[in-house]
Amino acid sequence: MAEKKEKKPLDLNRRQMPKQPPEVRKYNFNEVAFGYPEDVAVEEAKRCIMCKKARCVQNCPVEIDIPAFIQAVADRNFAEGIRIIKQKNCLPAICGRVCPQEDQCEKTCTLVKKEGQLAIGRLERFLADWEARQGHVEMPDIPEWTGKNVAVVGGGPAGLTVAGDLILRGHRVTIFEALHRLGGVLVYGIPEFRLPKEIVNREVEYLKRLGVEVHTDFVVGKTRTIDSLLEEYDAIFVGSGAGLPWFMNIPGENLNGVYSANEYLTRLNLMKGYLFPTYHTPIKAHRRVAVIGGGNVAMDCARSALRLGAESRIIYRRSREELPARFEEVENAEEEGVIFDFLTLPLRYIGDENGWVKEMVIQKMELGEPDDSGRRRPVPIEGSEETWPVDAVVCAIGNSPNPLIGTTTPGLKLGKKGNIEADEETGMTSREKIWAGGDIVTGAATVILAMGAGRKAANSIHDYLMGGNGHGNGADDGSGANTASDANAGADQNTT
Amino acid sequence: MHFDSLVDALEFAIEKEEEAEQFYTELAEKMERPHMARIFENFAEEERGHRRMIKDVIMGRPSFVPQPRVADLQVSDHLMDVAPSPDMDYQQALIFAMKAEKAAYALYTQLSEASEDSAMRDLFHLLAQEEAKHKRRFEIEYDEQFSGEN
Amino acid sequence: MFRILACRMIVPNMHILTVEAPAVAREVQPGQFIIIRAEEEGERIPLSVSDWDRERGTVTTIFMSIGRTTHRLARLRSGEYLPTVVGPLGNASEIEHFGTVLLLGGCYGIGSLYPIARALKEKGNRVFVVIEARSSYLFYWEDRYRMLVDGVHHITRDGSKGIKGHIGRVPEILASLGEPVDRVIINGCTFCLKRGSDATRALGITTIVDLNPIMIDGTGMCGVCRVTVGGETKFACVQGPEFDGHEVDWEELSQRRKTYMAEEVIPLRTSKCEEHMHGEEHERKEKHGQAAAPGEPPGRERKQPQHTGEVS
Known about the structure:
CATH class of the largest domain in chain A: Alpha Beta
Strand content of chain B: under 5%
CATH superfamily of the largest domain in chain A: FAD/NAD(P)-binding domain
Distance between the termini of chain A: 30 Å
Number of helices of chain A: 18
Number of strands of chain A: 16
Oligomer: heterotrimer
CATH architecture of the largest domain in chain A: 3-Layer(bba) Sandwich
Low-confidence stretches of chain B: none
CATH topology of chain B: Ferritin
Structural class of chain B: mainly alpha
Largest sheet of chain B: none
Radius of gyration of chain A: 23 Å
Strand order of the largest sheet of chain A: 3-2-1-4-16
Distance between the termini of chain B: 41 Å
């Protein structure tokens, strides 16, 4: 978040992707964007100037050979295009939709300054959808079994990537998933209108067809511990993702009608609350919903609330420039009529006689002088308190990593927030045979970063299984000597 | 509260810092989770730093230089109190620490305002500013760690 | 998919379900719960575990047919399947040699206390059980308890067995035991937990309650199960479900459990020929404090609100 995001859309020559008009889509849960038609995809692909030094590839966490697949689209050789992507990414339909391409591959596109960056993400999505429409999916050859078994804990983006990568190298892979469906945040978090669940299911089915074994309804740390799994598996990857949602710790957060983003989205997406009562999990149709936070999750909540018929607003403590959400999502939310209240901080919630939230007290903020780190932090404006009527609040300010594994696996080194500490390049943890990646390591991040971490871990696990060379940093004693300096970062040192 | 001499006042301040250090050390020992114990050990270490600084003043080696007021981000003002417990997490620990530092700041500010002796007034003012700086560090950490999306 | 080995009514409106879930059976401890889905479109509801067989790989739970999901569950028969049985979730009960322990159970809690009683006996405690119901015909598992514990007492609303009244009369039983009680453990509906805790507060006896808030994932992710205990927010699924009954904010818990009361009746209004259970009017408010707000006129149309929240 250090650098301000370029919020100006550069799409001079970039081909537009057809979308449902805002006044229509705000009343339904169908996917917002339709995807490129073939001809438009080919036109867009032809804009690529095929840089020799493809900086887009360097900026892709899973290093897809972007120019090669773009060329294939330009040549109308779509089967070849999808094959190239799938060498590196087993979930292209998902990444084409939810990756923050503007901060990754597309950010460094040479066309950025000339005529608008190439729509790499949209083309990736186009190929994946094209393949799905063909009705048959090319299956790669699976090498003979290496004799090694790998357990993957958590069936989210990180775990699915690890499973996909390792099965292609001949290892047997078993995914253990706590929920009743695979996909992690892709199924419980990201709404249908941004990522149809059918697409997630399609990619999950592909993995199963590759031979990945799946145990849903299995909570590692409860149903079985990591150490118990290690009796059967040669290596374990932990990608157990988000844990306890954060609240602000202000009065009134336990009133009825105050939700965590996780609860709100899980009811809606995993449990299909928007189809209540056909599906049995209820979700309230509120009239005035305030979503606290400015990330992608907050946008998802606000846009969902809108679709359930509410007046929906985003309450964000900083200004528009600092919004951590993807620009495209902010724009979509604005078009649909989500109200944005910047520089606004909730102070407390007030309930009615039945314990339902009815009002929120907010305070207006202003950005203070830049501090040592150069950031202008929001400070309250004296006397700016106001009381606003609300009947629901969704707290979308993030969550801590899931505690179940950390607390049941002795010797696994944890960071300050209870996250598992893992090597950035390999995903190795402080324990032999255990790797970790995704939100359980980094805290809430993006789907593609989790996939990137999964990719690196898969490589490291493969090397370990085949080379049998020892586990790099197992010697770490877990003293965590670096926490003091972390805590002091950006502030003056007057300790020691 | 009244102090007869500057040294009395300093000794009081040292005692306060010792109490804080002691408190964080004991809290660290109570933590169920090792990573939380380390966090409180670090807090204790910072209080130890404070104490050393005050001792330097007594020894005639003042390391305080007059400073402008430290901006108060008021991050903790509206947060609910947190009681120390063995299953605390980092968020709770920071809220607790921010509030503790704020209370220390308020105490020194009060002492400064109540002091008739100008040297004592300056000293308490400086101590208050030190606490404010300390609090601000926790505030920034809280801001970065727990308010990234807010 | 998890195969049902037995599902039958044990006393009016109370059902016993035994399901094949070997992974759960292998690890489960007293005081823990499972989360189930009764059908593909169904919600996830938590149910306390009442017994298990590690060798056969089965788990047994007792539940009250009270909302949409439990109605459905009650209609399932052996040989059918549940799409989800996940667990064991929550922390196990603290089981030590406490001395003398009084267990207080109402409705499904009579079942879920059983493994706790067994474990306490194994640790050498003297264990007394008080079971509470509207009338004597709603008691079950009395024989199991008699064979296990040092004494079984009854409270019935209609006086048909034991003391006449509600759970608030437990101090009389405590006084009659002739020995000091070191710990009270209560399982049952929110109302029962609250009244029981209120009754022991003045006596200064440590009182542990098994809370039953609404849950979805049961692994700490959604946060819907948060309860205030001793002024602090706790997530019942990972930090509970057992807490100090004297520290729980009961009003908040009751209110939070009512969150989806209005939605609970929607499927009843819109569904066509589902065989509805008839709301059992006699089990209304007194038994489940959450069923109706204080002062609300009784009405048999109002369904128990537990829907999502129904817990064990």
